[in-house]
Amino acid sequence: MVFESVGSLAAGPWVYAVVAVSVLLDVFLPVLPSGVLVITAATAAAAGSGAATGRVPHEVPDILALILCAATASVLGDLVAYRLAWRGGERLDRAIARSRRLTSAQQRLGDALARGGGALVVLARFAPAGRSVVSFCAGAAHRRARDFVPWSALAGLSWAVYSVALGYYGAQWLGATWLATGVSVAALFGAGAAAGYVMRRQPAS
């Protein structure tokens, strides 16, 4: 079975390195399938550990390592984008000013952080390209790191837990098959579409 061989490879450290690089870079290239990769790795880890068949010998450390890897890479990517935008200067400010979507996002983010709440940052992590918009807008607006980073960490952890759980429990419920991966990926995209809808519905002040 394909997933049995893939699952045996999921224990290798290279899997975590590939996941980390993909998640870190997709803040700059939102087209990278980092979420799909995380789900596939979680499904393969469940298959390799025997979790998909009801045996649970050593899957917890692998799953926890995958969550930690994806969450850490997500926060690091956010910070890199945030710092680059902070130093972007007038050229980046003009680029944001020319985009109604970016201007609105920057305004909403500023309002959310000023109120001491960053639910928008967490929500944006699930929306298509939302992570990129929020990270760059926070940096371009020179929002304080202490206002942005904790919410970025919560967003990265929430997204990582959700993505890994989809792959892991999908393998348990549907078996370690491509069908399970497809259903899990569809659930991830569904959450992204819902997050994007909620963000668009929120009025800018």
TrEMBL record:
<feature type="domain" description="VTT">
    <location>
        <begin position="47"/>
        <end position="168"/>
    </location>
</feature>
<dbReference type="InterPro" id="IPR032818">
    <property type="entry name" value="DedA-like"/>
</dbReference>
<feature type="transmembrane region" description="Helical">
    <location>
        <begin position="63"/>
        <end position="85"/>
    </location>
</feature>
<comment type="similarity">
    <text>Belongs to the DedA family.</text>
</comment>
<protein>
    <submittedName>
        <fullName>Membrane protein DedA with SNARE-associated domain</fullName>
    </submittedName>
</protein>
<feature type="transmembrane region" description="Helical">
    <location>
        <begin position="148"/>
        <end position="170"/>
    </location>
</feature>
<feature type="transmembrane region" description="Helical">
    <location>
        <begin position="36"/>
        <end position="57"/>
    </location>
</feature>
<keyword id="KW-0472">Membrane</keyword>
<keyword id="KW-0812">Transmembrane</keyword>
<feature type="transmembrane region" description="Helical">
    <location>
        <begin position="176"/>
        <end position="199"/>
    </location>
</feature>
<keyword id="KW-1133">Transmembrane helix</keyword>
<dbReference type="InterPro" id="IPR032816">
    <property type="entry name" value="VTT_dom"/>
</dbReference>
<dbReference type="Pfam" id="PF09335">
    <property type="entry name" value="VTT_dom"/>
</dbReference>
<feature type="transmembrane region" description="Helical">
    <location>
        <begin position="6"/>
        <end position="29"/>
    </location>
</feature>
<keyword id="KW-1003">Cell membrane</keyword>
<dbReference type="GO" id="GO:0005886">
    <property type="term" value="C:plasma membrane"/>
</dbReference>
